[in-house]
Design a protein that fits this description.
By secondary structure, the protein is α+β, with helices and mostly antiparallel strands. About 35% of the residues lie in helices and about 15% in strands.
Length: about 450
């Protein structure tokens, strides 16, 4: 798979190196093997060939940037959609996909997709042809990413005043004063039904171009970003494996009497030391859904017999892909754990086998819905969670997500979960890519029950 050969500027500290260095000491102490915290099953998992391969992941082994060719591929794909929609220009603002959950902390998913840069660009102006303009404050000035953007053909503009003034200037230079203008995150954006474009900025742009026609256009980027290139799939595969290192750290640190915060830090630091980037998501909870921790360290003490579930996603070049691996910490094991864990693992394998281009999401969710109904629960629960920048579909067989037709290049986490009487969940999941002939897992660990003592 294609990977960027670009090298980081050796004369400056990258965000990746700073994060890695800051966490190295803590991670070294938290991830030191402890004979008392693992049962024989977990010890075997740690020493497995897959675990040894994962241990070889370091920031130096990962791509340092998206290639110029990849970024320009994205522009061509978005521009093709603009042509089909008869748009002359696309105004792209920051898109926060998780207001209530602390994920995508950089908060610029759509802009990051078009620039490949995680530093804070506020707006991108993308005309149907001609130069692409990215607008930011002086936070990006002089950074490695500024030159990288310029090398990709992006006109970087540093704002010292209203955003609208720079947007208006870029639009005038693109000669779209009487054109049809699409605006992302204006309305009906992913996880932002009412959009995030500020009234004042939008009002000033509208008044500057009274003869132009403006319309919401968030769907343009979502449709393109859902289909990943070989370069993106290669990065998502690495991201998945970084997430698996987070799971390994959880297996190491979790035991009765340990505070959740300690486990959270172990997972966070293991992933930072692997990729040099902040994890996309670290949310872990005992006797509750993993996402109920809202990506936060908690002062909850793990008790013997509790089930630890999580949403764990590493980050490489800003892309996340989730993994899930519930585990019982100590004993006694909940009476319904074995059956629920088997249901989750069996459902995962059945869903993986069912994935193929041309099928609807609701078709591959049939195995999950069947087991939910057999347990007296409502079908249609969330079981698909797309990878990437956090703005792509998530859901199950119900609603619009169930109607999505799978295409080769889509990447998502398959994560069937079944409730326990204790309030916990049995959930085993991994990110998969849709191929021309079916699907392939991006993770390397064995999907099995791991026992912690």
């Amino acid at each position: 798979m294609a990977k960027s050969s670009r090298k980081a500027n050796s004369g400056a500290f990258s965000r990746r190196k700073l994060l890695q260095g800051a966490s190295a000491g803590i991670a070294a102490s938290l991830l030191t093997p402890s004979g008392s915290s693992w049962s024989q099953s977990a010890q075997s998992e740690r020493g497995s060939a897959s675990a040894q391969r994962l241990a070889a992941i370091t920031p130096e082994s990962l791509p340092k940037a998206w290639s110029r060719e990849e970024i320009q591929r994205r522009w061509r794909a978005v521009r093709q959609k603009m042509k089909e929609a008869e748009l002359d220009c696309l105004l792209v603002c920051q898109h926060h996909p998780g207001e209530m959950i602390s994920e995508r902390q950089d908060g610029d998913a759509d802009i990051e997709y078009l620039t490949g840069i995680s530093l804070p660009y506020k707006w991108v102006v993308l005309p149907i042809e001609g130069k692409v303009t990215a607008i930011s404050t002086n936070q990006v000035k002089g950074a490695r990413e500024e030159k990288l953007s310029q090398d990709r053909g992006i006109d970087v503009r540093i704002v010292d005043g209203p955003w609208s003034a720079s947007i208006i200037d870029a639009m005038r230079e693109a000669s779209v004063a009487q054109g049809r203008i699409g605006v992302t995150d204006l309305a009906d954006a992913s996880r932002q039904a009412e959009g995030e474009v500020t009234y004042t900025t939008y009002d000033r742009v509208l008044k500057a171009f009274p003869q132009a026609k403006f319309q919401p256009a968030s769907y343009l980027i979502d449709g393109v970003a859902a289909l990943h290139s070989p370069e993106e799939i290669g990065v998502l595969e690495k991201t998945t494996q970084v997430g698996e290192l987070g799971l390994q750290a959880m297996f190491e640190a979790a035991r009765p009497g340990v505070v959740q915060r300690v486990v959270w830090l172990a997972m966070f630091n293991a992933m930072v030391n692997a990729s040099g980037e902040r994890p996309f998501s670290v949310s872990v909870r005992a006797d509750g859904p993993g996402n109920s921790a809202l990506n936060r360290p908690l002062e909850e003490v793990i008790r013997a017999g509790q089930v630890l579930s999580q949403e764990c996603s590493g980050c490489v070049l800003g892309y996340g892909s989730q993994v899930n691996h519930s585990v019982v910490v100590g004993s006694p094991v909940p009476a319904d754990w074995d059956a629920a864990a088997k249901d989750s693992l069996d459902t995962f394998e059945e869903m993986l086998a069912a994935i193929a281009p041309g099928k609807m999401v609701k078709e591959i969710c049939a195995a999950y819905d069947r087991r939910l109904v057999a347990r007296g629960e409502k079908p249609g629960a969330l079981v698909i969670h797309s990878g990437g920048l956090g703005t792509l579909p998530r859901g199950g067989s119900a609603g619009a997500v169930g109607q999505i037709v799978l295409q080769a290049g889509m990447v998502f986490d398959v994560k069937p979960a079944f409730r326990l009487k204790t309030g916990g969940t049995a959930q085993f999941g991994d990110s998969v890519v849709v191929t021309e002939n079916g699907a392939r897992r991006l993770g390397r660990r064995e999907m099995k029950v791991v026992k912690l003592s």
